[in-house]
Amino acid sequence: MDIVFEQVDYIYHANSPFAQRALYEVDLAIEHGTFVAIVGHTGSGKSTLLQHLNGLLVPTNGKVRIGEYTLTNRQKQKQLKPLRRKVGVVFQFPEHQLFEETVEKDICFGPLNFGVSEDVAKQKAKEALALVGLPEQLLSQSPFDLSGGQMRRVAIAGILAMEPDVLVLDEPTAGLDPSGRKEIMELFARLHQERQLTTVLVTHNMEDAAKYADYVVVMRQGTVWKTGTPEAIFHDVDALLQIGLNVPETVLLKRKFEEKIGREIPSPCLTEEQLIDGIKALFFGGRLS
Amino acid sequence: MNVIIGRYVPSNSVIHRMDPRAKLLAMLIYAASVFLANNGVTYAMLTAFLLILLLLLRVPFSFILKGLRPVLWIVLFTFLLHAFLTKEGAALYQIGELAIYEGGLQKGVFISLRFLLLIAMTTWLTISTTPVEVTDAVESLFGPLKRFRVPVHELALMMSISLRFIPTLMEETEKIMKAQAARGVDFYGGSFGERIKAMTALLIPLFIHAFQRAEELATAMEARGYRGGEGRTKYRLLTWGWIDTCLLASTIGITILLFLFRT
């Protein structure tokens, strides 16, 4: 589903002394099947933007088009259910949403809400649990007896079982250890490929943005500051550092390396592999002897 | 959130800078003396006094009115009830069986005014005073009760902790509601059974986290050497100034006037 934001404003507590503007005339287009990373400072409007994707928030002004759905400020909450089936949102710390007696019931909760029969839901729960890399025995356990990392996976499975077309992820790896983080991100990358999803990832982690995204959207003070491919966005290191954002470690290393030896590595060096290949090319390509 | 009752609105007005003890006492005395008023003059005095206090807040008036809106229905209901059920004085208006009497109209106006005054006065306090200040004031005012082994400090601490966690819990409620709404829960409609289910999906995570947080808080406090109120010093010291005396004196003044003018 294509997602288009047209001149979207969002104001929290509109018409009250606590009114706070979070989005200013945001224009954004996300094509079907792309993997988009949204990066930006705390308070830059990332989370607000994300909640527009399934109508948890509707724009104060402007409109959001998601596939055949159009959201404006006149949207009624009740009509949004079909949209929410198609757009799965994994919130920050999704393990906070677990509530059922067993893991199976919790994963089935979403599909059942969207009118799937119980047998099918159970089947989907089993598949989703396998997808997130957890053993089937866990199905009958209480989600509250699991470890933090396992709870996170169960919660993610709960969203995947809904089989959404668009997967929205709000810092899905926050608070996980490095190996857990990598596993979860690899899972999302794989699902994106296999199910031809549209994936929107909100993250602080520039390495993840560089590695997995087709496009990067940089938010700043409630507006879209810049969009582009990771290569283009992370090429302009100084601009990003200036607005207080990071670039991937590898890009910084590339820059230091280039300053020291006075030559350019012919690669954007967005990942460790690219960096290694780039340096190899310098040394063994005969240019440095 | 449209509920403005009990919400602090930051400002730098005279009232905001006053000692919370003075404000709390003034509020309590005023609330008690509202019940003394029983004729036009006394109600007028109370209203005028309150209006002055509200003006001194330097908060937009529309905002205070908005805070009163939720209780307006109760006020209207009380008014109608009194207006129709009191049968005193001359009949003013007759619609079939129902009649409005002069006495009823007057009583209706007075009782609903009493309601409004009470609520406006408490709103005045909460708009100008943070919950923490209120707790400090309570602890200080009830301090003497410690002699009678009333755990004043502990009660005040409980009060401030619960007040402190109201916004946190509200935020968490909103977050969980959103997360469950994303999983297809409809909090705004559906059958009775569906609503019950929706509430469990909200309340269970909320409770679990409240308990976890309470435990974490207790550990954190113990780790920093908290051992109850004994020998504990204060970060925010309450200072009583001449302006606080003024407020208290004028409130007491109003009460005396009410005694003189009531019939």
Description:
The complex is a heterodimer of chains A (about 290) and B (about 260). In chain A, about 40% of the residues lie in helices and about 20% in strands. In chain A, helix 6 links the parallel strand 7 and strand 8. Chain A folds into two domains: about 240 residues, P-loop containing nucleotide triphosphate hydrolases (Rossmann fold, 3-Layer(aba) Sandwich), CATH 3.40.50.300; about 40 residues, no CATH class. Chain A contains eleven helices and ten strands. The mean pLDDT of chain A is about 90. The longest helix of chain A is centred in the middle third of the chain and has 17 residues. By secondary structure, chain A is of the alpha/beta class. The radius of gyration of chain A is 21 Å and the shape is globular. With about 260 residues, chain B is mostly helical. Chain B folds into two domains: about 140 residues, no CATH class; about 80 residues, no CATH class. Chain B contains nine helices and two strands. In chain B, a hairpin with a 2-residue loop joins strand 1 and strand 2. The longest helix of chain B is centred in the C-terminal third of the chain and has 32 residues. Chain B is flat. Chain B starts with 13 loop residues before the first helix and ends with a helix. Classes of the chains: A alpha/beta (about 290), B mainly alpha (about 260). Chains A and B meet through helix 2 and helix 3 of A and helix 7 and helix 8 of B.
Helical segment tally of chain A?
Answer: 11
Query: What would the average pLDDT of chain A be, to the nearest integer?
Result: 88
Number of strands of chain B: 2
**Which structural category fits the helices and strands of chain B?**
mainly alpha
Low-confidence stretches of chain A: none
* Number of individual domains of chain A: 2
- Strand-pairing-aware structural class of chain A: alpha/beta
CATH class of the largest domain in chain A: Alpha Beta
CATH fold assignment of the largest domain in chain A: Rossmann fold
Across the major sheet of chain B, the strand order is 1-2
Structural shape of chain A: globular
The low-confidence parts of chain B are: none
Rounded to the nearest angstrom, the radius of gyration of chain B is 23 Å
Strand order of the largest sheet of chain A: 6-7-8-3-9-10
Oligomeric state as shown: heterodimer
Q: Mean pLDDT of chain B, as a whole number? A: 86
Question: How many helices of chain B in DSSP terms?
Answer: 9
Number of domains of chain B: 2
Tell me roughly what share of residues is in helical segments of chain A.
25-40%
